[in-house]
Recover the amino acids of this structure.
């Protein structure tokens, strides 16, 4: 028989009943916690104790070899190795690792425990490999450096500084908090961008559906009714031309789209094209200002953590520069590093780039350098910019909503005029 999904054999029911009766003879004090499962309680508890999570094969990169395994296993390994590790996965990992290290648990044991708990199969393999390397004598930061596509230079630098100063748990807590803020910001950006993208995608699909399936029926109806194409409204004639191009020359349209995509991809990956595109992104109305705030937020938040971790200023600036994706900001930070090496302060090097780093940011950094509180000042700036980014996203969403409504209304009106006007003309001809 089954009890709530647990298989219970009936051959020991009599024995369980006898054990239950024997337990009833035990003297219980007043207030004792007593739960009775009837004659099946022993079987149920034994079934629960026997239930175990399905075991997962431990994979250590560099040791694991699947060359002699079946093609299904190799395909599964390939798909796992290509899967993405999210910021949420890393934030949870660093936070739990900090908690366990702070509780006195060895790093290797903490890594093994976290590998068993993670749901991401690739991340589990990475953590098992890091634990194996740490068990062999490597530092955590050195073991992480093998997976530079998962743990960036800033994360490895913070961990390394924590190991050097003996405050690994503190640095892990700060790193977890920083990654968690990045994840929240990423989710807000994704939420703000998915709305207009989804609306435009639906509009395109609806328009294509009407051109392919609805409009041909309308054209047949007009032709049978004796309505000439020259007498149709302008909007209808335009839709007829678009429908004819989509139906008859769809393959040419696809080729042109792929050609433009290929040309854009080549241009964006060239040194000049990538630089120009990054500059254009910063100048897009409304969105460009938001992007500049995002890069400033990333700069000050990461710089504060790295300086607080005890890393040299030059090293911190190099790590921050590598973590920024925009080449304009990379170029500016390269200039800052050169000037700081020659003896200038960071704030002085940023004064001539107010477009990238606003004046108030430079002034606050100057105060932080003068009072030796760069980490504290950077944290305050990042908190302020995080609030400004949240407000900017709300404003951006409030602007997009009426724009989307206007675009949808215009498209619906054009389609209605193009489809309904010929039908009204046809009704007039039939009545006359």
């Amino acid at each position: 028989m089954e009890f709530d999904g647990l298989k219970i054999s009936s051959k020991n029911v009599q024995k369980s009943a006898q054990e239950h009766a024997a337990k009833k003879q035990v003297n219980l004090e007043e207030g004792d916690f007593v739960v009775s499962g009837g004659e099946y309680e022993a079987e149920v508890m034994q079934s629960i104790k026997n239930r175990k999570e399905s075991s997962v094969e431990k994979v250590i990169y560099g040791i694991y070899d699947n060359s002699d395994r079946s093609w299904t296993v190799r395909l599964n390994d390939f798909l796992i190795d290509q899967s993405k590790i999210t910021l949420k996965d890393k934030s949870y990992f660093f936070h739990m690792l900090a908690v366990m290290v702070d509780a006195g648990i060895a790093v290797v044991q903490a890594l093994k425990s976290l590998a068993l708990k993670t749901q991401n199969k690739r991340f589990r393999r990475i953590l098992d490999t890091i634990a194996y390397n740490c068990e062999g004598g490597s530092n955590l930061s050195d073991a992480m450096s093998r997976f530079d596509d998962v743990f960036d230079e800033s994360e490895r630098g913070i961990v390394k500084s924590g190991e050097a100063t003996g405050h690994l748990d503190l640095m892990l807590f700060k790193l977890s908090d920083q990654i968690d803020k990045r994840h929240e910001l990423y989710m807000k950006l994704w939420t703000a961008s998915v709305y207009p993208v989804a609306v435009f995608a639906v509009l395109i699909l609806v328009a294509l559906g009407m051109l392919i399936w609805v409009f041909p029926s309308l054209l047949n109806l007009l032709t049978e009714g004796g309505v000439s194409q020259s007498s149709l409204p302008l909007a209808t004639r335009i839709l007829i031309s678009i429908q004819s191009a989509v139906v008859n020359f769809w393959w040419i349209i696809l080729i042109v789209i792929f050609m433009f995509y290929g040309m854009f991809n080549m241009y964006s990956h060239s040194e000049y094209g990538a630089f120009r595109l990054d500059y254009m992104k910063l100048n897009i109305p409304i969105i460009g200002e938001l992007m500049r705030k995002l890069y400033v937020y990333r700069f000050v938040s990461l710089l504060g953590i790295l300086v607080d971790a005890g890393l040299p200023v030059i090293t911190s600036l190099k790590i921050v520069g590598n973590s920024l994706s925009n080449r304009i900001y990379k170029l500016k930070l390269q200039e800052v590093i050169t000037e700081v090496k020659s003896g200038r302060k960071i704030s002085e090097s940023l004064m001539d780039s107010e477009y990238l780093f606003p004046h108030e940011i430079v002034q606050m950094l100057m105060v932080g350098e003068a009072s030796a509180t760069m980490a504290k000042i950077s944290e305050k700036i990042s908190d302020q910019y995080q609030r400004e980014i949240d407000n900017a996203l709300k404003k951006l969403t409030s602007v997009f909503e009426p724009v989307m409504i206007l675009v949808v209304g215009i498209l619906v009106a054009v389609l209605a005029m193009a489809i309904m006007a010929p039908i009204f003309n046809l009704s007039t001809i039939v009545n006359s």
Residues 1-18, 20-26 have pLDDT under 50 and may be disordered. The longest strand covers residues 2-3. The beta strands are 2-3, 6-7.
